[in-house]
């Protein structure tokens, strides 16, 4: 979708300050995005407006200043820290004589670079096609008329109409393939639900440290870097927690303020992991000055994808970057952990996170004593395999008295299996 210069792209950044909070963007975040896209920043042009101009987004004088900067620095791209309309992009490109990219296009470009799996590439292409379909005029101003002449008389549509038709066809094709992926994911989720395995999903602002935390907890080697959108493709791993058993931990794509709607729609299958989770670990970069704004942005995206009702456990990460940072668990009025302070980089507080997870996910536990006859030695072995036996004592009549501790879910499942295998209720062996 995007042509790249072999020598690397050099950009002029444009940031406009608006009085209305919802229209504002962060200049430092734009610089991080540009760095993540492997683009060199030559100059930053700032402006202040009450409302965007319909022609250039900025005023005509500021637009001329941007064009002069492009010539002065010999830049090959101008990047705006805002969303531009197709008309504004086209007008600016005509004036600056180089490519103009808005914030949405920049994020899409970063996603295109990071996609590794087949599913991820399909999702990015879908988002790009939806975005670029409104900007086709820019590339085909010389072919707006119907084709004519020998060998060119055809369907009676302009080149623009042909391209739009081809893009619609490609979008339909990608949606069909993503639907298959979504069904496969749903199948996996249904299997986990049948096995009653809880799912914990990592969410948070981009570069909050989700992948580093994921690697620390699961001992995996998922790519983690100090850059925006280092993780794009979701990763699932199984971990074991005491008194809980198997738990699926999911690492997901990071959120960002004003996340393009094309991406939210395209990554619907991926974000479903978040929506269907039993618990969300909301990872926060506690060293970031804009942490409160970032929390609000994540909450906004969670509402957009319908995951705002899922229970959350706040993870205050990067305490190693605080002068007085210490690992701890904060409890609410009901004695439930709602916030954990840790450092995924150093590992400080990871055991507290596991402790908090156990407290939030631990099911109802059963403490029972079973008196099993010698003929049920196979069941005794199964109880040991489940790590449920806490104490065992041999009785005078050859029976075995076992003290067991297991979740109510596992107990119900075991009772059902025993009834099928032995034709007898396990409740009859409880003392």
Automatic annotation (TrEMBL):
Subcellular location: Cytoplasm
Molecular function (Gene Ontology), one example: metal ion binding
Binding site for GTP: 204-211, 229-233, 251-254, 317-320, 343-345
Every Hflx-type G domain range: 198-365
Pfam families: GTP-bdg_M, GTP-bdg_N, HflX_C, MMR_HSR1
CDD domains: HflX (cd01878)
InterPro entries on file: EFG_III/V, G_HFLX_dom, GTP-bd, GTP-bd_M, GTPase_HflX, GTPase_HflX_N, GTPase_HflX_N_sf, HflX_C
Keyword annotations of the record: Cytoplasm, GTP-binding, Magnesium, Metal-binding, Nucleotide-binding
Cellular component per GO, a single term: cytoplasm
HAMAP family linked: GTPase_HflX
Functional note: GTPase that associates with the 50S ribosomal subunit and may have a role during protein synthesis or ribosome biogenesis.
Family under the similarity heading: Belongs to the TRAFAC class OBG-HflX-like GTPase superfamily. HflX GTPase family.
Name of the protein described by the UniProt record: GTPase HflX
């Amino acid at each position: 979708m995007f042509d790249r210069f072999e020598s690397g792209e050099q950009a002029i950044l444009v940031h406009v300050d608006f009085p209305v909070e919802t229209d504002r963007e962060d200049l430092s975040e734009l610089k991080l995005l540009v760095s993540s896209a492997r683009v060199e920043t030559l100059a930053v042009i700032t402006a202040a407006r009450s409302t965007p101009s319909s022609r250039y987004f900025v005023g005509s004088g500021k637009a001329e200043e941007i064009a002069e900067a492009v010539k002065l620095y010999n830049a090959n791209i101008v990047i705006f820290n805002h969303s531009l309309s197709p008309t504004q992009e086209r007008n600016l490109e005509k004036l600056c004589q180089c490519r103009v990219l808005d914030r949405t296009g920049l994020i899409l470009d970063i996603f295109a670079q990071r996609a590794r799996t087949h599913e991820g590439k399909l999702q990015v292409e879908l988002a790009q096609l939806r975005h670029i379909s409104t900007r086709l005029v820019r590339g085909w101003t010389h072919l707006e008329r119907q084709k004519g002449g020998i060998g060119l008389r055809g369907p009676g549509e302009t080149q623009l109409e042909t391209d739009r038709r081809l893009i619609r066809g490609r979008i339909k094709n990608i949606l069909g393939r993503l639907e298959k992926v979504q069904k496969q994911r749903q199948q996996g989720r249904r299997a986990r639900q049948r096995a009653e395995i809880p799912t914990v999903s990592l969410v948070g602002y981009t570069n909050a440290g989700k992948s580093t935390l994921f690697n620390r907890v699961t001992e995996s080697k998922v790519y983690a870097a100090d850059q925006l959108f280092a993780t794009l493709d979701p990763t699932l791993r199984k971990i074991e927690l005491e008194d809980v058993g198997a738990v699926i931990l999911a690492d997901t794509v990071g959120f960002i303020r004003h996340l393009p709607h094309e991406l939210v729609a395209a990554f619907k299958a991926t974000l479903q992991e978040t929506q269907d989770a039993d618990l969300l670990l909301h990872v926060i970069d506690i060293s970031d000055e804009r942490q409160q704004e970032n929390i609000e942005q994540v909450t906004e995206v969670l509402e957009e994808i319908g995951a705002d009702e899922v229970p959350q456990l706040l993870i205050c990460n990067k305490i190693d970057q605080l002068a007085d940072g210490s690992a701890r668990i904060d409890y609410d009025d009901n004695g439930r952990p709602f916030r954990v302070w840790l450092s995924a980089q150093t590992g400080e507080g990871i055991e507290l996170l596991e402790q908090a997870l156990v407290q939030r996910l631990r099911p109802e536990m059963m403490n029972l004593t079973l008196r099993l006859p010698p003929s049920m030695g196979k069941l005794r072995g199964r109880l040991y395999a489940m790590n449920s036996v806490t104490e065992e004592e041999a009785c005078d009549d050859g029976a075995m008295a076992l003290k067991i501790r297991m979740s109510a879910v596992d107990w119900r499942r075991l009772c059902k299996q025993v009834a099928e295998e032995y034709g007898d209720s396990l409740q009859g062996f409880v003392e």
